[in-house]
TrEMBL record, chain B:
Residues 34-153 form the NADH:ubiquinone oxidoreductase-like 20kDa subunit domain. This is NADH:ubiquinone oxidoreductase. Belongs to the complex I 20 kDa subunit family. One of its GO terms (molecular function) is 4 iron, 4 sulfur cluster binding.
TrEMBL record, chain D:
This is Hydrogenase 3 large subunit. Keywords: Iron, Magnesium, Metal-binding, NAD, Nickel, Oxidoreductase. The keyword Oxidoreductase applies. Transmembrane segments: none annotated. Mg(2+) binds at residues 227, 503. Gene3D superfamilies: Cytochrome-c3 Hydrogenase, chain B (1.10.645.10), NADH:ubiquinone oxidoreductase, 30kDa subunit (3.30.460.80). Residues 47-163 form the NADH:ubiquinone oxidoreductase 30kDa subunit domain. GO terms for molecular function: ferredoxin hydrogenase activity; NAD binding; NADH dehydrogenase (ubiquinone) activity; nickel cation binding; oxidoreductase activity, acting on NAD(P)H; quinone binding. Ni(2+) binds at residues 246, 249, 536. Fe cation binds at residues 249, 539. Residues 300-467, 478-542 form the NADH-quinone oxidoreductase subunit D domain. SUPFAM superfamilies: HydB/Nqo4-like, Nqo5-like. The keyword Oxidoreductase applies. It comes from Zestosphaera tikiterensis.
Length: 136, 173, 298, 567
């Protein structure tokens, strides 16, 4: 099984996208973003370990994974969800936003960082339009 | 839909389960697996792991079996036979769902021709009136021989489960 | 019959009831050794298996009530054949009548198990039994010829030992050993029950107590057959002496033969019904011919 | 002009064989031949109109060294509003693939070629089932999908999603056992019934007494819908899926897939990768053959042999774990390279273990083949003459047991096989013993190959290409000699993952010949005969498998026999 480090993980979802059997899934709701790991479907290929940009996923050599209830084989990691400042839709985790901010080294201003991709595109288009035409 | 076969007599399940601890006969039921788990099941029977040490024996008919080693994601074409095989077992009947496929449908949990693992089958069995006395899920892809043996031990109550449901809050850095 | 005889017979019958599963356990251990495994945890394993089967649910096969009944009948004949054999041995009342009774009892228990599987509706069962019938037809012939010839030669040897009657004894014993080996249903002649593709053949439909009884009867039968061979050999060595000694030697020798058969079985593959029948037929016919010739000259 | 076409054909040909064969194809097609193109060094694609498909098939099947390899149906309606059928023929003597591309609109019937190319039978049925392509001039029946599957749903079409299929079709549990009357049971000795093997497989044997009169494979129990699933996956996820086509020879499938993608996209793989892949492939062959020998001996009732074969095999499993990190489904293969390197220490360890395996194996094989029942029951049973083997385009040890010296490792070389010297064991008797001996000999060859590779493995640590660009709608073929025979994958590339991925496992080809082998065999020898092709049903069905030791048997009335339901 794999172990996800709750300190390092930012909830970016790279592992979810690469996981061949979809044993890792991510669920985004109003309050929280839950990264779910279902051992019962894991094929132990370690693609997530290789992919994780934060090196937050560790392999272990545990094999005694039997359980009487399938539910016992579920692991969850709960992140805070950030809502888009423009449209108010929940989009990513707070840690992820911070990490992006850190990596960009201030290249992005907060008003763009906390905006979901759709709104960000709209915002940028608007800015350009304002620049070109001079009209708000 | 399956109607349950008439049952004859009543069995003292607790007593029978107690006797099972020294002698457990297994029937290997492949429900559309890739063979990976199946050969590990055979591996468990052969010299290196040799589960006859624990009184486990492979039998050729579900009528003789106490435990079904279920591998595979249960494809729709096998469903019919799987239900019948489990129904043919005398009670107490136990099931060991092996491998990612048996536990959660594995890599094909969501294709058009699989049921997607034992939990879904169990719902179906319940609706058909076929009772299964105990189930243990053993993940792995393919499931390791050691894990199978551990699964059997867990099934018989000789070992404690080592994984638990966990819900961890991410630590803000 | 005095008290001692009765208690001896019952003592031996009880031992005979407990010994076969124990011997099977030993055989499993030995087989595991040959296959470089450890095998069952203790030699008591077969007992545990039977005890478990006794408390499991009995699922009646389709139209299988008769089958279950015959299984129990077969157990009874099997036990009584052991008891009767012991009686014959202890009281030294070996005569044509007792031999006939013995053969009837043994073959009856043998065939009843077969009948049990024919009466179920499962084709695997039916094919399994059909094969066994074919094999039995040939084997019973060899068994009777061997058994009678050996006993007859033993009587001759005790009164008038000549090299020729010794040869007759050896030939009869050979036929007896082969036929009892086949009768035990061991490899390569276990085709009625163990063709893996036929999903355990004859006993596929049995469960719970019925299966337990069937297996137990089967082990008993193996024991009876080994006992016969042990008797044929031990009589030559120790003659008809003290009953207690006879029983002790018999029990020991039977166990040895039982295990030896098991060891031989572990080294072989399974034959096909046509091949098996052909081999046995040739063997028995040639052995019988030799016997007849030996007798003619004796 | 016909002469122009023939000239173009000649110009794309690879050698003299392909030149002469292509010329013949050009002659029968005339102006129905639309386009010829060389898609990779070893693959030539010929686009023809459906009308002349049958003639082309006749020409190709008449050639002695041309074998039918696979056929893929692809739904290319989003791009061209057409379905396309890709028939792959291989010229064994030259290692060239001729891909005959036939477009169809899905309404018009395509002429069936299963009358001239026997091996094509299942491919057409499968294309009919999964893609809804219609074929003329043959009897079409359900092959892959369950009997109660709705007529109008073809799961591999692009316009239907898995979710939609699931909504339209829910499996029903039907109990047939209860319907059995006692009357039918009386018929058993002449009637049909199923034997059950340890591997989940489902044959109906029609027996008279103890002799098998006919046999039918009622299969595709393991249909898991892999090809549909792959279409929703990314390039780097598919190798893991491919490995799970079969748990025994999984690496074969993942290598075959990656090779197909690499060919389609022209990716140059580092030499060390080729070495590592080849070593693991051969290791897999050893474990698979040992497994098979064990199971075969078990079927012959020689359980001691079974145990010892598996005891030796366990060493190979430990070796696999050392080299790849897993006992099975290694998961080390990706498009463009492998994930795990082999270092000096591992090489030494591997050599040592192989030496032990070799010694123990020799000893074991000597004993096992001298057991009288094993010899007697193997020789002369399940005979498949070489002619039949050719007609069915059989592959692997099954073909080699019937005297056809076919081996993808030599004929269409790949990986690092051209760096080593090895021989291909061939026996001409065509019985179960011949097929067993082929496998027994191959283990020695495999050990030899691995030793040679370990001696010459490059010391560089470059095992993966850094990056590569996917291009859509490129065709690639990948073939690997699996323990059971050739595996061939056809990949049509997409943007993020394969657009269409067709897997052809060796058993798919070999299984079609099993009824021929079974006819006249004793019932007791039926299992070993079926097993003698080393069937891998999960490969074949690429979706599922079942063990029918349910203790209940279904009866097929004899009328079915006469209705042509049996092949």
């Amino acid at each position: 099984m794999i172990e996800i480090d709750p300190v390092k993980c930012v909830g970016c979802g790279a592992c979810v996208r690469i996981c061949p059997p979809k044993a890792l899934t991510i669920e985004v709701n109003e309050k929280e973003t839950i990264l779910k790991y279902f051992i019962g479907r894991c094929i132990f290929c370690w693609m997530c370990v290789q992919t994780c940009p934060q090196k937050a996923i560790k392999t272990t050599n545990k094999f005694e994974l039997s359980a009487v209830d399938v539910h016992e084989l579920q692991m969850e990691l709960v992140h805070n969800t950030v809502k888009c400042r423009v449209c108010g839709k929940p989009f990513i985790t707070s840690k992820f936003v911070k990490e992006v901010g850190r990596r960009l080294n201030g290249g992005f201003k907060d008003d763009l960082l906390y905006v979901c991709p759709t709104c960000r595109r709209k915002l940028t288009a608007k800015k350009i339009a304002t620049k070109v035409t001079g009209v708000e | 839909m399956v109607e349950a076969l008439p049952r004859n007599g009543s069995v003292d399940l607790a007593k029978a389960f107690d006797k099972l601890k020294r002698s457990i006969w297994v029937f290997h039921l492949n429900t559309g697996s890739c063979n990976g788990c199946d050969i590990e099941v055979l591996d468990v029977l052969t010299p290196y792991f040799d589960v006859e040490r624990f009184g486990i024996k492979l039998v050729g008919s579900p009528r003789h079996a106490d435990l079904i080693l279920l591998t595979g994601p249960i494809t729709i074409k096998t469903l019919d036979k799987v239900v019948r095989a489990i129904d043919a077992m005398p009670r107490p009947r136990l099931v060991l769902a092996l491998g990612s496929c048996g536990v959660g449908g594995g890599i094909w949990f969501n294709t058009y021709s699989t049921l997607g693992g034992y939990p879904k089958l169990q719902e179906l069995l319940k609706s058909l009136g076929v009772e299964v006395d105990k189930v243990v899920y053993v993940p792995g892809c393919p499931v390791r021989p050691e894990a199978i043996i551990y699964g059997v031990a867990l099934l018989l109550g000789l070992a404690e489960p080592k994984v638990r449901y966990e819900r961890v809050e991410a630590v803000e850095g | 019959m005095d008290f001692i005889t009765i208690s001896l017979i019952s003592f031996f019958a009880v031992v005979s009831a407990f010994l076969p599963p124990l011997l099977d356990g030993v055989e499993r251990k030995v087989r595991a050794k040959i296959q470089s495994r450890i095998g069952p945890p203790t030699v008591m394993q077969t007992w545990y298996d039977l005890r478990k089967l006794a408390v499991k649910e009995l699922k009646m096969p389709l139209g299988g009530e008769l089958a279950v009944l015959t299984v129990f009948l077969s157990l009874i004949t099997s036990v009584s054949s052991i008891a009767y054999l012991t009686y014959v041995l202890i009281t030294s009342t070996l005569n044509p009548l007792s031999i006939a009774t013995l053969i009837v009892l043994i073959t009856a228990s043998h065939n009843l198990t077969l009948l049990s599987s024919v009466s179920t509706s499962n084709p695997f069962s039916i094919v399994g039994s059909y094969r066994n019938v074919t094999l039995l037809l040939v084997n019973e012939f060899g068994f009777m010829a061997g058994f009678i010839a050996t006993l007859y030669a033993l009587v001759r040897l005790s009164t008038n030992p000549t090299p020729l009657s010794f040869l007759a004894y050896a030939l009869g014993l050979a036929a007896l050993i082969v036929s009892t080996y086949v009768g035990c249903g061991r490899l390569p002649y276990d085709i009625h029950e163990a063709e893996p593709e036929l999903a355990s053949g004859a006993l596929i439909e049995f469960s719970g107590v019925a299966l337990g009884t069937y297996l137990y009867t089967h082990l008993m039968m193996r024991y009876v057959f080994s006992l016969l061979v042990a008797y044929a050999i031990s009589t030559l060595i120790i003659g008809f002496t003290n009953a207690l000694v006879v029983i002790a030697v018999l029990a020991l020798l039977t166990s040895i033969i039982y295990i030896l058969y098991g060891v031989v079985a572990a080294m072989l593959g399974r034959t096909r019904v046509d091949l098996g029948v052909r081999t046995l037929f040739t063997l028995y016919v040639s052995l019988t011919l030799c016997l007849v010739v030996a007798w003619l000259f004796a | 002009m016909v002469s122009d076409i023939i000239e173009t054909l000649a110009s794309v040909a690879r050698g003299s064989r392909s030149k002469s064969i292509l010329t013949k194809v050009g002659e029968v097609c005339g102006d129905k031949l639309l386009k010829v193109e060389r898609v990779s060094p070893s693959t030539i694609k010929v686009l023809i109109k459906a009308d002349c498909l049958h003639e082309v098939a006749e020409v190709l099947s008449a050639e002695r060294d041309v074998y039918f390899r696979t056929m893929a149906a692809s739904d290319e309606r989003p791009a061209e509003n057409l379905f396309k059928l890709y028939y792959v023929f291989g010229i064994d003597s030259e290692g060239t693939n001729i891909v005959v591309e036939v477009p169809t609109d899905g309404e018009r019937e395509v002429p069936s070629i299963s009358d001239v190319v026997k091996a094509c039978d299942w491919y057409e049925l499968e294309a009919h089932d999964l893609m809804g392509v219609k074929f003329s001039g043959r009897f079409l029946k359900r092959l892959v999908l369950p009997d109660d599957w709705p007529e109008e749903i073809h799961p591999l079409r692009k316009d239907i999603t898995t979710e939609e299929i699931k909504k339209l079709y829910q499996p029903q549990v039907v109990k047939r056992a209860v319907e059995l009357g006692v009357e039918e049971i009386v018929k058993i000795p002449i009637g049909p019934y199923h034997p059950a093997l340890h591997e989940p497989e489902y044959f109906e044997l029609y027996v008279r007494g103890e002799k098998v009169v006919d046999a039918r494979y009622v299969g595709f129990m393991v249909h898991r819908g892999i090809e549909k699933l792959a279409e929703s996956m990314k390039y780097d996820q598919v190798p893991f899926l491919a490995e799970r086509i079969c748990g025994i020879c999984g690496f074969v499938h993942s290598v075959s897939y990656t090779q197909a993608v690499e060919e389609a996209l022209n990716i140059e793989v580092p030499e060390k990768t080729q070495y590592i892949r080849t070593i693991i492939l051969e290791l897999e062959r050893i474990h698979s053959h040992l497994l098979w020998i064990g199971v075969a001996l078990h079927l012959l009732g020689y359980d001691t042999g079974f145990m010892h074969a598996w005891r030796i095999r366990e060493k190979v499993m430990v070796l696999s774990e050392l080299l790849t990190g897993s006992r099975k489904t290694y998961g080390i293969n990706l498009v463009g390279g492998v994930r795990k390197d082999i270092n000096k220490e591992k090489i030494e360890k591997t050599k040592q273990t192989l030496k032990q395996v070799l010694n123990e194996y020799k000893e074991f094989v000597d004993v096992a083949t001298s057991v009288p029942q094993v010899r007697r029951r193997l020789s002369g049973t399940g005979v498949l003459p070489g002619g039949e083997a050719r007609a069915y385009s059989l592959v692997g040890p099954t073909a080699r047991g019937s005297g056809l010296s076919r081996d993808v490792r030599k004929d269409y070389t790949y990986g690092a096989y051209h760096f080593v010297s090895f021989s291909i064991p061939t026996y001409s008797e065509g019985d179960n013993l011949a097929r067993t001996l082929v496998r027994i000999d191959e283990v020695y060859e495999s050990i030899n190959i691995i030793e040679q590779l370990l001696d010459t493995i490059p010391s560089s640590s470059e095992i993966k290409v850094d990056s590569w660009e996917p291009q859509p709608m490129k065709l690639g073929l990948g073939n690997v000699e699996a323990p059971r025979g050739e595996v061939i994958h056809v990949v049509i590339t997409g943007k993020y993952g394969p657009y269409r991925w067709r897997v052809r496992a060796p058993t798919y080809q070999n299984l079609q010949a099993v009824p021929t082998m079974l006819r006249g065999v004793d019932l007791a020898d039926a299992p070993i005969t079926i097993a003698s092709i080393d069937p891998c049903f999960s490969c074949t069905d690429r979706a599922i498998k079942i063990n029918i030791k349910t203790g209940k048997v279904e009866f097929i009335p004899l009328e079915v026999l006469s209705r042509g339901g049996v092949r």
